UniProtKB/TrEMBL annotation, chain A:
Record has Transcription as a keyword: no
Quaternary structure and interacting proteins, as annotated: Component of the pre-66S ribosomal particle.
Cellular location(s): Nucleus, Nucleolus
CDD domains in the record: NSA2
Pfam families associated with the record: Ribosomal_S8e
One of the GO BP terms on file: ribosomal large subunit biogenesis
Biased composition range(s): Basic residues: 35-55
Keyword entries, A-Z: Nucleus, Ribonucleoprotein, Ribosome biogenesis, rRNA processing
Region (Disordered): 1-84
One CC-aspect GO term: preribosome
Biased composition (Basic and acidic residues): 56-82
Protein name: Ribosome biogenesis protein NSA2 homolog
UniProtKB/TrEMBL annotation, chain B:
Organism annotation: Eleginops maclovinus
Subunit architecture: Associates with pre-60S ribosomal particles. Interacts with MINAS-60 (product of an alternative open reading frame of RBM10).
UniProt-listed CDD domains: NOG
Location(s) in or outside the cell: Nucleus, Nucleolus
Protein name in UniProt: Nucleolar GTP-binding protein 1
Residue ranges of domain OBG-type G in the record: 169-340
GO molecular function list: GTP binding
InterPro entries in alphabetical order: G_OBG, GTP-bd, NOG1, NOG1_N, NOG1_Rossman_fold_dom, NOG_C, P-loop_NTPase, Small_GTP-bd
Length: 260, 634
């Protein structure tokens, strides 16, 4: 016991007060009443925070109780059968045949041609031009309105240099240029911060694709060399597509899902 | 500056509390109302302010944590080492480093989002950006949960460390567990250290203070050390080793002669030899404790040889017993003397001492004749000095008597009187006898002394000691004094005159009474002004112009209105009847008057000219937010 611990030293030498244990017991039993009083009488923001915290506490308590209960009784385990298990009469005897592989390849090529991709967000809200581009007035009397400024997050490549300011029609402000995206692998459920290589397709308009505007649903190519993926042939994969899942201009960051 | 107290470190909140505090502070201290239709720069400013405010709060609090906690390189090496032993230097530095990183990350997040918010063109977008920014900052802090917990525990422990000053005079006790170190410190200082029969009762360093030779000394008690190599030592023993290594103190190595601690003398000697290197350059004393159980002379030959060897090396061995208190004072004085001598020696070897020495000069008076004049020290001082050193019992004080006698005690100072007849000490001294004051007759010479005093006074008065300084005044002063005297006399005369006057009723101011010209001229003349040829003066002209004789006007009968007012004298008619022909007209006039006043009365105005606008809905009662509750009724 360090030299400064007076209370503990006193307790060691002289023991507790005569009513100490009773007082402690009664105080602990009063806690339930005090908690309920608080829950009833709090108002405003404090009430919201308190109720939220209490709700999560109660959920935890219920879970624990249920867990304890489960150990006492034995239940039929419904998902004993593993995923992907197929009844005997549906089993394929030979596995995937070469013909199947070929036909899959052809189907994928056709899809690519058609421009239809299997993406996590198939439908996205189209962004109109007034939303994405803001009119900038120029000229001596501020009457000319041929310049546009991009109001959404965009990506410009490494070797990007602006056109001379007098002639550039689309202004992409530096504050809205992003180089990295937070990409989630859908199966591993892990998120990585990967550099963007380029914008592949913006679903709203090809103009946006060429400008590099990134909105929700845009397919973007990211540098996955960090993940260390390897093809069947032994080549290292260093670029993959990912689709943006949030509104980057509202959140300040680009969240995407890798397309495997 | 090194912190030897460590008590001023602010509390480190847990991650959850930290986030709650900061977010609620942001909610309270920044404006809360913003609407869609506000101008966009206003909306942006509103949300940017919240982001920056939150960032500022986090930054401030984290910086405070970083500055409060001591840097291990800045404090005294004793404390640095102690903290390393107790908290692990690496872990400590890592935790503080993580906090620093968190602080920088939060700053960067705020900077980025404020930059992004400049491009926000709608309330929704700015709001989402602010939400993202605050969320990010809070997530960064949530990750620091473990660092913050660790730092809070360190802070609590650090604030309880005993405040040991590494530079002052210190006595350090060391030895095996259970040899009697804590009992020793309890005897010598007021420190109340726990003493128990089991080993490792003392688990940390304890400090106590004592006085010797008008100086303050620290006594540091350490946990017991066992004999194994340095790498195997646990935290408790390492604290003792740290103290031994860094404090420049006199070492008191305590040994248990009776071997009651569980280790025999041979083992204790081995421990002594193994930590010998730590005793270099420090005055050392061996304390042979528990000598009430067994004295050194009662030991076996080889054990006695141990002590003999030590004494031969020059280390004093003193037998003590903390139970019977023999030898404790001897150890104390011996250790303190040695340490003082050691410190003085060191100071003399240093460079700073010459500055002081050069300024000191002992002046010896030159002998003027051959007579010997040794210093005179009264007997009492010598005996008292001896008593102080030997701790002899002092004479019985009145306080002791009071304690003994309890309720019967009476303070009787007459017993100390020096009388010729001893039995008369307790007699009551009367004050008056046969009409005479005894106090007057205490001194037989008192009348002669009084006469002498009176003669002295006469002489002084004659010599003019009590006269005021009149020659020092110049002519001007004397004139002023004469004038002042005259003014005083005149004032008194005037006061007397006014008192004699019999004044009835209210007193009119002086200006209402007419002052006659002749009287004015006579008064001014008496005061010394020249009042001849004053016919052209202002007052004389005024006197001529005023009507000294009032002519009486011939009384004419004025036209009296045939109404109630006939009975009144022919003086001016009241205003509501002047110019009114008949009762009908009078009634109409009255009606008009009342009509014009109706509006004023209804509005509660004081009169025609009352244009005061009352504030029926003061702003301070009708605006503002309530902390809890609604604004439905105020």
């Amino acid at each position: 016991m360090p030299q400064n611990e007076h209370i503990e030293l006193h307790r060691k030498r002289h023991g507790y007060r005569l009513d100490h244990h009773e007082k402690k017991r009664k105080k602990e039993s009063r806690e339930a009443h005090e908690r309920s009083h608080k829950a009833r009488k709090l108002i405003g923001l404090k009430a919201k925070l308190y109720h939220k915290q209490r709700h999560s506490e109660k959920i935890q308590m219920k879970k624990t109780l249920k867990m304890h209960e489960q150990r006492k009784t034995k239940q039929k385990n419904d998902d004993k059968t593993p995923e992907g298990a197929v009844p005997a009469y549906l089993l394929d005897r030979e596995g995937q045949s070469r013909a199947k592989v070929l036909s899959n390849m052809i189907k994928q090529k056709r899809k690519e041609k058609a421009g239809k991709w299997e993406v996590p967000l198939p439908k996205v809200r189209a962004q109109g031009e007034t939303e994405v581009l803001k009119v900038i007035k120029t000229g001596k009397r501020q009457k000319k309105a041929w310049k546009r400024m991009v109001t959404k997050v965009c990506f410009v490549g490494d070797g990007f240099t602006r056109k001379p300011p007098k002639y550039e029609r689309f202004i992409r402000p530096m504050g809205l240029r992003f180089k990295k995206a937070h990409v989630t692998h859908p199966e591993l459920k892990a998120t990585f911060c990967l550099p963007i290589l380029g914008v592949k397709k913006n679903p709203s308009s090809p103009l946006y694709t060429s400008l590099g505007v990134i909105t929700k649903g845009t397919v973007v190519e990211v540098n996955v060399s960090e993940l260390g993926l390897v093809t069947q042939g032994g080549k290292v994969i260093w670029g993959k597509y990912a689709q943006v899942t949030n509104n980057p201009e509202n959140d300040g960051c680009i969240n995407a899902v890798l397309l495997v | 500056m090194a912190l030897y107290n460590f008590k001023k470190i602010m509390v480190v909140p847990t991650a959850k509390d930290f986030i709650d505090i900061t977010l609620s502070k942001t909610q309270r201290k920044t404006p809360t109302v913003v609407h869609k239709h506000y101008q966009i720069h206003r909306i942006r400013h509103f949300y940017m302010r919240k982001v920056k405010f939150t960032q500022q709060n986090y930054h401030d609090r984290l910086s405070q944590i970083l500055t409060d906690f001591p840097k291990l390189d800045d404090i005294h090496p004793f404390y640095a080492d102690l903290m390393n032993v107790l908290y692990d230097k690496d872990h400590y530095k890592l935790a503080l480093g993580q906090i620093n990183i968190a602080k920088n990350l939060i700053d960067n997040v705020a900077k980025d989002y404020v930059r992004l918010m400049k491009y926000g063109d709608s309330l929704y977008r700015c709001k989402q950006l602010k939400r993202a920014a605050l969320g990010r900052m809070c997530t960064i802090l949530k990750r620091q949960k473990s660092s913050l917990e660790y730092l809070e525990q360190v802070r609590q422990h650090l604030s309880r460390l005993p405040s040991i000053d590494p530079n002052t005079r210190t006595l350090l006790l060391c030895g095996y567990p259970n040899v009697g170190k804590s009992s020793f410190i309890n005897k010598v200082t007021r420190a109340d250290v726990d003493v128990q029969p089991y080993a490792f009762t003392t688990k940390s360093l304890f400090v106590g203070h004592m006085d010797y030779r008008y100086l303050r000394w620290q006594v540091v008690d350490t946990p017991g050390i066992l004999d194994h190599p340095l790498e195997n030592r646990n935290t408790i023993e390492m604290q003792a080793i740290t103290a031994l290594a860094h404090l420049r103190a006199a070492i008191l190595y305590v040994m248990d002669v009776s071997e009651q601690c569980g280790h025999n003398l041979q083992q204790q000697l081995e421990l002594f030899n193994s930590i010998r290197p730590l005793f270099a350059n420090k005055p050392l004393i061996i304390v042979a404790n528990k000598c009430d159980v067994k004295k050194i002379t009662e030991l076996t030959e080889e054990n006695q040889k141990i002590f003999a060897d030590l004494t031969a090396e020059g280390i004093p061995v003193i037998e003590t017993s903390t139970l019977t208190e023999e030898g404790v004072m001897q150890v104390k004085t011996e250790a303190c003397d040695r340490l003082l001598a050691h410190r003085v020696d060191n100071k003399m070897k240093g460079k700073k001492v010459h500055d002081v020495l050069n300024r000191l000069h002992l002046a010896m008076p030159a002998k003027r004749d051959e007579k010997e004049r040794p210093p005179f020290i009264p007997e009492g001082a010598l005996t008292r000095k001896k008593a102080m050193e030997v701790d002899a019992p002092k004479r019985k004080t009145e306080r002791d008597l009071e304690m003994e006698m309890g309720d019967d005690y009476i303070l009787d100072l007459q017993k100390y009187w020096d009388l010729m007849n001893e039995e008369e000490k307790s007699d009551i001294v009367p004050e008056v006898w046969e009409g005479h004051n005894i106090a007057d007759y205490i001194d037989p010479e008192i009348m002669k002394k009084l006469e002498l005093l009176e003669q002295e006074e006469e002489l002084k008065e004659k010599a003019g000691e009590y006269d005021s300084d009149e020659e020092s005044e110049d002519e001007e002063m004397q004139e002023i004094r004469v004038l002042a005297k005259q003014i005083r006399e005149k004032k008194q005369v005037m006061v007397a005159i006014s008192r004699e006057k019999d004044v009835h009723g209210p007193r009119m101011p002086r200006t209402t009474t007419r002052v006659e010209r002749a009287k004015l001229e006579k008064e001014m003349g008496s005061l010394g002004l020249d009042m001849n040829n004053k016919d052209d003066s202002h007052y004389a002209q005024n006197a001529r112009r005023s009507r000294s004789v009032t002519k009486k006007r011939k009384r004419e009968a004025s036209v009296v209105p045939t109404s109630k007012t006939r009975s009144q004298s022919a003086s001016r008619p009241p205003r509501d009847q002047s110019g009114v022909r008949d009762p009908a007209m009078a009634k109409k006039a009255k009606r008009m008057m009342k009509h014009s006043q109706k509006d004023m009365n209804r509005q509660g105005k004081k009169g025609e000219a009352d244009r005061h606008v009352y504030d029926l809905k003061p702003k301070h009662l009708f605006s503002g937010k309530r902390t809890q509750g609604t604004n439905d009724r105020r």
